Sequence to fold (228 residues):
Amino acid sequence: MTENNVKFNDVRYCYGEVCAIHNADFEIKRGSLTIFVGPNGGGKSTLIKLLSGFLKPDKGSVDVENNGAIGYVAQGFGFDDSFPITVKEIVLTGTLDKKILPFKKYSKEQHKKAEEAIEKVGLKGFEKRGVSQLSGGQLKRVVIARALASDAEILVLDEPDSNLDIEAVKDLYQLLKDLKDSKTIIVASHNIDFILDISDTAVYINKTARFFENPQELKEKLKEGMII
Ligand code: ADP
Ligand code: MG
Fold:
């Protein structure tokens, strides 16, 4: 085990003619909370997809040291309100092994994992609720619980705070703060004031990536308009 468990080595990724990212070269420390910030279209989601293995770099490599799957929460991820599924059922799917046979019953161990994850995100008592009976903030927690139930050591969340009111955003970040140390957490976000204060390191992403050991330094630079 090394200190850094995510490594971007001079990565480039192009969608056909459009190169979203070039020369991305940085490392992320195990057990840290790192924020990806930058303008719309800057390449945050592309970097997150490269990190999660959904995209392969055109040049360079992405090395991820983890214990299996990465807990990935996509941008704009939601549930169809009319879909009749409960909190517990969603979180249980996080425990599924890809090799598992369909229609297999969940084991006691899987139920335990799901229950622990639900408790961790503060949704104990909501297990039997349908997704249509949850607030936006609670839904995000369900998705995070699902990722936790998978035992993933690395959690990657792409703008989990969009469409949430300020109180829900605060609660969400408090939760992420509580989860770090046991997990490596990477969040793409627009809420820079907030999350830069609680994050350990930051990456400014605008066609390329610039790593900041100290998020406050990035905050100052953004305030002074030194970075666009
Ligand atoms: P961000 O998440 O920071 O808003 P993205 O990673 O979504 O940025 O996008 C980076 C760039 O890549 C943008 O110019 C965007 O238009 C382009 N892009 C993203 N996805 C695709 C795609 N599927 N096909 C073509 N271009 C894309
Ligand atoms: Mg995005």
